[in-house]
Amino acid sequence: MDILLVASAFNSLSQRVYAELSDEGHRVDVVLASHGTEAIRTAVQEVRPELIIAPMLRTALPEDVWRAHTCLVVHPGPPGDRGPSSLDWAVAEEAPEWGVTVLQAEAGMDAGDVWASESFPTAPVGKSDLYRNETSDAAAAAVRLAVRRYAEGAFKPQPQSDPSVRVVWRDFFRQERRGIDWENDGTGTVLRKLRGADSQPGVLDELLGHEVFLHGGHPEDELRGAPGELLATRAGAVCRATRDGAVWIPELRPRKSSGDPAPFRRPAASVLAAFSAPSLPEVPAPLELPAGRRTWTDIRYRQHGDIGFLTFSFPGGAMSTDHCRRLLAAYRQALTRPTRVLVLGGCRDFFSNGIHLNVIEAATDPAGESWSNLNAMDDLVEAVLRTTDRLVVAALGGNAAAGGVMLALAADQVWCRTGTVLNPHYRRMGLYGSEFWTYTLPRRVGGEIARRLTTEALPVSAATAARLGMVDRLLPVPAQAFAAEVEKLATALAGAPDLARQIAAKAATRRADEERRPLSDHRRAELARMRAIFFDARAPYHALRSAFVRKLPGGSARPLAPVGEPVAGGDR
Question: Where are the beta strands (DSSP E) in 293-428?
Answer without folding.
Answer: 299-304, 307-312, 341-348, 391-397, 400-401, 413-417, 421-423
